[in-house]
Amino acid sequence: MNIIADLHIHSSYSRATSRDSNLPGLAAWAAIKGIQVLATGDFTHPGWFNLLKEELVPAEPGLFRLKDETTFPAIFPDVTTAPGPIRFLLSAEISCIYKRHGAVRKVHNLLYVPDFNSAERINSRLAKIGNIASDGRPILGLDSHDLLEILLENAPEGFLVPAHIWTPWFSLFGSRSGFDSVTECFGDLSEHVFALETGLSSDPDMNRLISSLDRFALISNSDSHSPSRLGREANLFFTDLDFFSLRDAIKTKQRETFRGTVEFFPEEGKYHCDGHRACQICLDPLETRRLDGRCPVCGKAVTIGVYHRIMDLADRCRPEHAPGSPEVFSLIPLAEVLSDIIGKGSTSKEVMRQYACAIDCFGSEFNLLLHAPLEEIQLVSPALCEAIRRMRMGQVVRQPGYDGEYGVIRAFEEGELELMNLERTVFAKQLTK
């Protein structure tokens, strides 16, 4: 079956996370987005782990469903979403901070396991190393190599994926605390790492500039801290609905089963370019090198972004994708598309009203953004149709993010809708069911 999976999220037990990030709330938003498989996140936290055991029951092998599937909150009371299963897959993120080769390393790693017993064994080991109850994403003085060893010993059918591998501060290749290769990080256990998470500020084309990454599958996830942000990046599969089929599809990285990834336009990521947010300075790598890595306003060191870091390690001028590789779909989240058209903030009441109408009309956000025929969208709104056409073609306006500041991706230039004589209203009427 066709499956959309978001395999990196956080619960309400993680810092700076919405209190609505509970299992029913996550499941309700997954249905709105069109996601069938959702990572649980945070299984290392005792409180969240207990809730997972109380509220989930086994479904297909290695996957779980809500014990009471009638508890979905009504996000949009009058909206009907497309029918389909919502399944959970046990996951956790560990912040590994340790010294290696005379430098402090800060690497975030994702763990995936097929059952509660495996998770419980891992939690028992990690609790002896540090405080796993302090945060849903615990900070441990644990080498990434040793974390992988713990996973292999206690959950041999599970797998580890380095998270958002280019983020400057906390990642495998981060400019502030990372390594230059997977082998340098994981040593003799490197063969057990078969996938990397690209993160919001890079995409597969950027990663395929580096030949040493060719053997790895590239996955994309939302890293959501709020249910409404689920699916801003995601993975597309055509497999049986179970943990092992999804794992093996990632491992083989062939389009027959791992259909593709949904991506941010990488410029929207908040660490795409170099820069210094305090001085509102955004730089490309050539400018940064010319300035010797210093902010031209205050003289302090700028934060080296993802694009720069990839250019440092690249050994190709153009990306090379193996035959049959997963496809890549760069999308703008629907709320941002509507915000661009309506001219109001993406979380405003009017944008959310229009968003609800769009879901009611097209069944889910992903169905509208990825699959809905343009002729059908045209009947609803010529402006929305043109925005989605441009997005699908990659014909968008890009303002890159830097130093923790999100970029902005728009379908239209300022004032362009008026010049094109397109209405800013998408759905003129309220939902009346």
UniProtKB/TrEMBL annotation:
Keywords: ATP-binding, Helicase, Hydrolase, Nucleotide-binding. GO terms for molecular function: helicase activity. Gene3D superfamilies: Metal-dependent hydrolases. SUPFAM superfamilies: PHP domain-like. InterPro entries: Pol/histidinol_Pase-like. This is DNA helicase UvrD.
